[in-house]
Amino acid sequence: MRNLAVAAALMLAASPAVAALSPGSKAPDFTTRGAMAGKVSTIHLADQLKKGPVVLYFFPAAFTSGCSAEARAFAEKIGAFKAAGATVIGMSADPIEPLVKFSSADCAGKFTVASAGPAVVAGYDVALGRKMAGREITKRTSYVIGRDGRIVFVHDDMNPAEHVALTLAAVQKLRAR
To answer: pTM for the complete prediction?
Structure first.
């Protein structure tokens, strides 16, 4: 009986969570500070959408194993995202200071990572509901947002393995329309 309960708990923990924002929802606009290749800038979602679709991926915390692996995977595929007309922005509840270093180290200076304040975290419903080293952390949720500001794809799973491949496929499908 105990083994059955443990197996059920593991299966539940391994299942993707349900994202609050579903395809077709209007993506909440925001302005925040971000960093690319160690340089800080202001990021405004509406301005980014004027260039094309945006992949907005939330990650729990910079310099953790899964988040570093995910950032490197996005950096490796950034050419394919750009070829499909998309901008990639990583988002974390981390303050800007560690993200400046993360943008150069794990993101290889290839895309912006930005600090998601409480309003952004709430708007995208990505609060994990726990802290790491005294700081809030977010769920690992990836959104593809079309130029019209509507969400076209959501992948909400703490396992970083599929976020890059699935968001790239969604962007390429969007471009093919």
So the answer is: 0.86
